[in-house]
């Protein structure tokens, strides 16, 4: 039979898993204070839990495997926070001028840019989204360039080495990037490694990088890192993001633009 210390250690690790899954992530410092054990003990617990594939360690703590690996389908994501996504896209469109060349990433927030673009008479849109390309094809004022690559059915996006090579050949005025996670420490993240690499190359191709994300993604960490906060010029999100987090992102150099659900923007 295990001794009391071992039993307590196993119970502590069980509770750590519950806390990480419930909150999406937890820091070593917070866990140390919660369980009244040393930070080195917590780090050892996290190492063992990662080896058991119960959590994933991240800088300064751990994140839930549920949050880093799970990716809903396009259809499932499309109905979430729809009014917020529409408002975010409306504000994002105010950054575009006729004559611009813009890059639009695949995503259920960036797709709301489509109705906003139809009033422009002279823009070039580069995209890896089959859905965006299909919707824009009949607009005479928009020159559409579709990036080649491998089709990722979960997101209806073109990704991979062919896409990345095409991105090396172009430079655009503005890049509108979608994300599954925007975190102070981990930056931009997404569930798929290949898609993460393509998003990174998209950001490198743009003079100005604008991240479009609803509040549910802010503070979240997914499996594959895309880029750090230093690679972002601006973030357009909604008022569901706590004020202290907005301030912390601004302190990291991210120009934050906040909308409410009916599309009224503030900066």
Offer a few descriptive terms.
267 residues; alpha/beta; 25% strand; disordered C terminus
Account of the 3D structure:
This protein is an alpha/beta fold and 267 residues long. It is 39% helix and 25% strand. The protein contains eleven helices and 16 strands. It has an eight-stranded mixed β-sheet with strand order 6-5-4-9-12-14-15-16, sandwiched between helices. It has a three-stranded antiparallel β-sheet with strand order 1-3-2. Helix 7 links the parallel strand 4 (101-104) and strand 5 (123-127). Helix 2 packs across helix 3 (39-51). The longest helix is centred in the first third of the chain and has 20 residues, at 4-23. 42% of the residues are buried. The model is unreliable at 1-7 and 263-267 (pLDDT under 50).
SSE topology:
Blueprint: H1 4-23, E1 25-27, H2 28-35, H3 39-51, E2 55-58, E3 61-64, H4 65-69, H5 74-78, H6 82-93, E4 101-104, H7 114-117, E5 123-127, H8 130-136, E6 142-146, E7 150-152, E8 157-159, H9 161-168, E9 172-178, E10 181-183, E11 187-190, H10 193-205, E12 206-212, E13 224-227, E14 234-238, H11 243-251, E15 255-259, E16 265-266
Rounded to the nearest angstrom, the distance between the terminal CA atoms is: 60 Å
Kindly estimate the percentage of residues that lie in beta strands according to DSSP.
25-35%
Largest sheet features: 8 strands, mixed
Give the strand order, joined by hyphens, for the main sheet: 6-5-4-9-12-14-15-16
Number of contiguous helices? 11
Rg calc: 20 Å
Strand runs, count: 16
Low-confidence stretches: 1-7, 263-267
Query: Helicity level, as a percent range?
Result: 25-40%
Mean pLDDT, all residues: 88
Q: Which structural class is indicated by helix and strand composition? A: alpha/beta
Coarse shape: elongated
The secondary-structure element order is HEHHEEHHHEHEHEEEHEEEHEEEHEE
């Amino acid at each position: 039979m295990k001794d009391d210390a071992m039993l307590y250690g196993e119970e502590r690790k069980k509770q750590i898993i519950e806390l990480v899954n419930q909150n999406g992530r937890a820091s070593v410092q917070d866990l140390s204070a919660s369980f009244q054990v040393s930070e080195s003990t917590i780090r050892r617990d996290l190492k063992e839990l990662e080896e058991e594939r119960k959590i994933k360690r991240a800088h300064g703590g751990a994140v839930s495997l549920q949050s880093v690996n799970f990716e809903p389908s396009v259809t499932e994501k499309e109905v979430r926070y729809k009014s917020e996504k529409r408002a975010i896209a409306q504000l994002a469109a105010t950054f575009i001028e006729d004559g611009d060349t813009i890059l639009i990433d695949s995503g259920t927030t960036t797709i709301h840019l489509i109705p906003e673009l139809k009033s422009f008479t002279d823009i070039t849109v580069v995209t890896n989204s089959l859905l965006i390309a299909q919707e824009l094809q009949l607009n005479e004022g928009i020159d559409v360039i579709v990036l080649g690559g491998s089709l990722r059915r979960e997101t209806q996006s073109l990704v991979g080495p062919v896409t990345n090579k095409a991105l090396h050949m172009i430079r655009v005025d503005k890049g509108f990037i979608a994300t599954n996670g925007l975190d102070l420490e981990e930056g931009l993240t997404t569930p798929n490694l290949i898609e993460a690499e393509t998003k990174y190359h998209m950001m490198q191709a743009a003079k100005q990088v604008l991240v479009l994300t609803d509040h549910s993604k802010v503070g979240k960490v997914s499996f594959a890192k895309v880029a750090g906060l230093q690679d972002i010029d601006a973030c357009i999100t909604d008022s569901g993001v706590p004020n202290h987090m907005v301030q912390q992102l601004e302190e990291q150099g991210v120009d934050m633009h906040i909308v409410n659900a009916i599309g009224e923007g503030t900066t």
